[in-house]
Design a protein that fits this description.
- The protein is α/β, with parallel strands linked by helices.
- It has one domain: Spore Coat Polysaccharide Biosynthesis Protein SpsA, Chain A, CATH 3.90.550.
- Helices cover 26% and strands 21% of the residues.
- The protein has six helices and eleven strands.
- The strands form two sheets. Strands 1, 2, 5, 6, 7, 8, 9, 10 and 11 form a nine-stranded mixed sheet that branches. The protein has a two-stranded antiparallel ribbon with strand order 3-4.
- Strand 8 and strand 9 form a beta hairpin.
- Helix 3 packs antiparallel against helix 5.
């Protein structure tokens, strides 16, 4: 199906977007952690894999809490997630993958938008998140567009995305990568990462044992050396 160019806005963000409207990080946006992924390649449920004394999901929740006053987790079942220090939701429409989790979060929040990340992203950067949200006035979606593609699980979604998400689900199109073509979107380009996160660690996922080894090494490198 073709895209009607008059029904969408896609901007490459190399220059600031000017707007008189500001978005309140504390009261206007909910931080959301999608806790999908069975972790078959890593040998256990991804969310509860340990990294330097904390589970991956707890590390992500703690980082999101630096930015948002409300953080929620969306999972396919509550189970062990009851132990987490935030509200936990079960997928409203099971079996749809990430787009189902995004839909659940948008319907559950009373705020105007959500910022969605995955549970296996231990290096999310609060400064990058804040910079993305500053560009969100007047649009429905702000999504990183990096050399390896779009990153829908490190993105801002306004509640105005819901009708397009519903249409995608109804059409059987469960790939969140399709959404930027359906809503008013900003592509957050690599140039906007370079000052704060030049290696794009904030969108790094832990999928394999080697990814976990790398994450441990990166954390060790960040620790100040004792002299």
């Amino acid at each position: 199906m073709g895209t009607n160019p008059q029904s969408m806005i896609i901007k490459k963000l190399n220059t600031p977007l000017r707007s008189d409207k500001s978005i309140d990080l504390q009261d206007g946006i909910t931080g959301v952690v999608l806790a999908g992924g069975k972790g078959r390649r890593i040998g256990g449920e991804k969310a509860f894999v340990q990294l330097a004394g904390r589970t991956l999901i707890r590390r992500v929740i703690d980082l999101l809490s630096e930015v948002f006053s409300e953080v929620i987790v969306v999972a396919d079942n509550i189970g062990r997630f009851r132990e987490l220090p935030c509200r936990c939701l079960v997928d409203r429409l099971p079996g749809l993958g990430p787009i189902g989790g995004i839909e659940t979060a948008l319907r559950a929040t009373s705020r105007e938008a959500v910022f969605v990340v995955a549970c296996d992203m231990p290096f999310i950067n609060p400064e990058i998140i804040q910079l993305m949200i500053k560009r969100a006035a007047g649009v429905d979606l702000v999504i990183p567009s990096l050399p390896d593609g779009l990153h829908p699980l490190h993105a801002y979604y306004a509640r105005t995305c819901l009708s397009s998400i519903d249409a995608q689900i109804k059409a059987g199109d469960l790939g969140p990568h399709s959404l930027p073509q359906r809503v008013r979107s900003i592509l957050f380009q690599k140039e906007s990462f370079l000052e704060r996160d030049p290696l794009f660690r904030s969108v790094m996922n832990i999928n394999t044992p080697s990814d976990l080894v790398l994450a441990h090494r990166l954390l060790e490198e960040k620790q100040p050396s004792a002299e």
